[in-house]
Amino acid sequence: MINVERIIVALDCPADEARSLASRLAGKARWLKVGMTLYYAASPSIVREFKERGFKVFVDLKLHDIPHQVRGAASSVVAAGADMLTVHGAGGLAMLRAAAKGSEQAWQARGDTSERPKVIAVTVLTSMDRASLAQVGVERSINEQVTLLARLAQEARLDGVVASPQEARALRTLLGPNAAIVTPGVRPQGASQDDQSRTATPAEALENGASHLVIGRPITAAPNPASAFDAIMNEIESNGTNPR
Ligand code: C5P
C-alpha cells in the first residue's frame, strides 16, 4: 500500500464545511472519515457525494446493537458507498459476524469494482480509564480488555481494529501482518495536541504497526489543508518508514 492510502482525514464538522474541505483536498487525500456527527446531520448521501468525488470513505459510526440491527446498519452504510466501517467489539461475536455479513452482502449487491469494505472493531474507547471500565463491570486492565476484544474481532473474521498509537505494536503482533490497525491521536512534529493526550507522530504510529492514520484538526484546521496534508506526507516519506 502506498503511503497516501494510509492517511484518513477526519471531517468532524458541519456538512457545508465538510464539503468545502473535500473540495480543497480533492486530488490529494484518498480517504475521508465521516463520523456520527456529520453522518447524522447530513444523511448517507454525504458518503455517496464523497465517493462520487473519488474519495474512499471511512464511516465511523461504532455500531453496537443486536445482531439483526447491526447487520442491517452495516448493509445500509456499505450500500451508501462506505469502504470501511466500525463496530463495537463489546457487542459480541454474533454481532461482529452479523456486521461482516451485512457489509459483504451490500458490497456484492453494489457490484462495483471497489475492494471489499473493511469492517473494523473498536476495542476500548480511549476516553475510558480503568475506573470508568470498572463502572460498567469490567474489572480487568485496559490492555487485557483491548486484547480480549481484538481476539474476538479476529475470531469473527473482521478486518482489524481501531487502536491508539500506544496499543498498535502489541495489536500488530497479535493480529498479524494483514490486519487493518487504524490509529487516531496522530500529531505531526510540532503540531498542537488539541484535546488529544497520548499522541504519536505519523511516522511513529506507522512504525508501531498502524496501517492507517486518522488525522483531523492538524489538516482540517490548517490555513491551507492541502499543504498541511502534503507536509504530513513529506514527514512520513522523509522518515523512511517502511510500513507493511
Ligand atoms: O482532530 P483529530 O486529529 O484529533 O481527530 C481524530 C479523529 O479520530 C476524530 O474523528 C476522533 O473522533 C477520532 N478518534 C479519536 N480517538 C479515539 C477514537 C477516534 O480521536 N480513540
Bound molecules: cytidine-5'-monophosphate
CATH class: Alpha Beta
Specify the overall morphology.
globular
End-to-end gap = 7 Å
Widest β-sheet, arrangement of strands? 1-2-3-4-5-6-7-8
Structural write-up:
Helix 4 packs parallel to helix 5 and helix 7 packs across helix 8. Strands 1-2-3-4-5-6-7-8 form an eight-stranded parallel beta barrel, surrounded by six helices. The protein is built from eleven helices and eight strands. The chain is an alpha/beta fold. The protein starts with 6 loop residues before the first strand and ends in a 5-residue tail after the last helix. The mean pLDDT is 95. The chain has one domain: Alpha-Beta Barrel (TIM Barrel). Helices cover 46% and strands 16% of the residues. The protein has helices spanning 15-25, 36-42, 45-52, 67-79, 93-110, 130-135, 142-155, 165-175, 202-207, 217-220, 225-239, and strands at 7-10, 31-35, 56-63, 84-88, 118-122, 160-162, 180-183, 212-215. Cytidine-5'-monophosphate is lined by residues 10, 12, 33, 35, 125-126, 162, 184-185, 194, 196, 214-217.
Question: Topology of this structure?
Answer:
Elements: E1 7-10, H1 15-25, E2 31-35, H2 36-42, H3 45-52, E3 56-63, H4 67-79, E4 84-88, H5 93-110, E5 118-122, H6 130-135, H7 142-155, E6 160-162, H8 165-175, E7 180-183, H9 202-207, E8 212-215, H10 217-220, H11 225-239
Parallel strand pairs: 1-2, 1-8, 2-3, 3-4, 4-5, 5-6, 6-7, 7-8
Helix pairs in contact: 4-5, 7-8
What labels would you give this structure?
single chain; 244 residues; alpha/beta; TIM Barrel; eight-stranded parallel barrel; 11 helices; binds cytidine-5'-monophosphate
